[in-house]
Amino acid sequence: MLAGDRPLLRLDRGGLDAGPWDDAALAAARDALADAAGVLVADYGRGVTADPGVRDLLTDTARRVPVVWDPHPRGTDPVPGVALATPNLAEARAASGEPDGDWLPTASRAAAALRTGWRAESVAVTAGARGAVLQGAGGLAVVPARAATGGDPCGAGDRFAGAAALALAAGRTADEAVSDAVSAAGSFVGGGGAGAVRRDADGWHAPGLLPREGTPRSTRAAGSSPRASAGPELASADSSDGHRRSTRSAVGAHHQAGGTEADSSDGHPRSTRSAVGALRPNRPERDGDHALAVVEAARARGARVVATGGCFDLLHAGHARTLGAARELAGPDGVLVVCLNSDASVRRLKGPARPIVGQADRAELLTALACVDAVAVFDEDGPQTVLGHLRPDVWVKGGDYVPDDLPEAGLVRSWGGDVVAVPYHAGRSSTRLAAAAGVGAPDHHQEGTA
Predict the structure, then answer these.
(1) How far is CA 208 from CA 50, 52, 68, 439, in A?
(2) Which DSSP string do the residues of 8-28 spell out, in sequence order?
């Protein structure tokens, strides 16, 4: 029951499962699953998934096709071998015993613990307005979300799980499926919320369940450390009974809201909101000494230090997503330092026609963004030297990278840092922009968002 787009009341019918399934019921279920390309188990804690015969059937099914398990606090653990389990943050904390804390470390640890404990291939922990954290065989992926408005958010969590199941059944990887699910759930909210599912001669139809063609999606997570993906809309928040329910806003709302700054007790201005687009007066923050001072001040107040790096030639939306994800990882009290390839470094990496924008202007553009606290320019081909000085808690790299394959990954992990890869925003790259402008021929180096 809605008042405008606000849910007031939900009425449910049904009760606890009547008891063990008999042979006829199990045989019917087995026949129904025989030709399935994928299965969604939407556990609402009513007892069905506790039945031994049902669990045996689902365990066998999970060996053949992807099974997505949407758990409930009153339900049972997923059967071993599910392709994806989708608890929300409250459910994940309760199931893993993880104490409350900063959302990203909490969700990451809970996802890793549940993947091991449940023996699942992947676990996606949804975290309300912040998006989702995916733990798979290759490591962690952080999937931010954009704001979604216009409809009742109740049910978007179910849409998330359903879309993920369809994507996996269609052969998507787990992180592609989660990105698809994020997009579908956001479209669900933006499209007005719950609607009718109809059936005709062509089959079942649920408008908006799958994302439109061309929707950016992440690439497969790999490596043993977190990475972030700049996915689109969605995720879910906790209802009063702990079961997943989506929120209207999602990660990325800060881009629309704009960024503000506050002076910390040490006088160093820092972002209180992870706005990428907000500008601030230019400041001389483009040298390593200043960046080191920013880092030391952050550590003195116990804040997280995040660094990212690249050429950032011809700043574009892909860069914005990388910076936004990095800022989100820093948290409201943390700092973001950009390690910027010098002109000479860019020429060696990209060719003699690059960079198009000189290092002074590139650094000035970056420091004008509210999400960036400092820029350190380096001349080497890679950022290892400057990283050794900064020693960030998290190193974020934009592009279609596997964290373990990055040359600097071992260095960052040597002091306990995490390595995160933010997949590029499909179709956005400086090389393409340069080619479109008729300057700088496309090269064969991996461009990512640099």
Answers:
(1) 32, 35, 19, 40
(2) --------S--SS--HHHHHH
CB contact set of 202 (below 8 Å; sequence gap of 6+) = none
* Cα–Cα distance, 3 to 15 (Å, whole number): 27
Residue 252: predicted pLDDT:
28
Q: Are 417 and 392 in contact (CB under 8 A)?
A: yes
The residues, ordered by sequence, that sit 6+ positions from 403 with a Cβ below 8 Å of its Cβ are 139, 222, 223, 224, 225, 227, 397, 409, 419, 420, 421
- Domain identity same for 334 and 360: yes
269 and 238 co-located in one domain: no
Give the residue from 82, 49, 252, 93 showing the smallest Cα distance to 174.
82
Q: Is 158 a catalytic residue?
A: yes
Positions in the chain short of pLDDT 70: 4-6, 14-18, 128-129, 144-153, 190-200, 203-288, 399-400, 423-450
End-of-domain residue from the set 246, 269, 303: 246
Judgement on whether residues 307 and 396 belong to the same structural domain of the protein: yes
202 is a domain residue: yes
Residue in the block written with tokens 């990887």: 173
Dist. CA 249–CA 234, nearest whole Å: 8
Helix, strand, coil shares of the chain, percent, nearest 5, are: 35, 20, 45
Task: Compute how many other C-beta atoms are within 10 angstroms of the C-beta atom of residue 78.
Answer: 31
For residue 321, the model assigns a pLDDT of 80
Instruction: Return the pLDDT at 447.
Output: 41
Could you report the per-residue pLDDT of 94-153, keeping only the tens digit for each?
A: 999 999 887 777 888 899 999 999 999 999 998 766 778 888 887 777 776 665 555 666
Residue from 70, 158, 175, 373 carrying the catalytic annotation: 158
For residue 289, the enclosing domain spans 256-437
Same structural domain, 238 and 347? no
Residue 362 burial by Cβ neighbours in a 10 Å radius (0-12, 13-18, 19+): buried
- Cα separation of 166 and 180, whole Å? 9
CA distance 115 to 84: 9
Asked if residue 446 belongs to a domain, the reply is no
- Whether residue 23 is found in the same domain as residue 83: yes
78 within some domain: yes
Reading the block at residue 151, the tokens are 């409809």
Is-contact 440 434, C-beta < 8 A?
yes
Token output for 70? 């949407």
Q: Which amino acid is at 312?
A: F
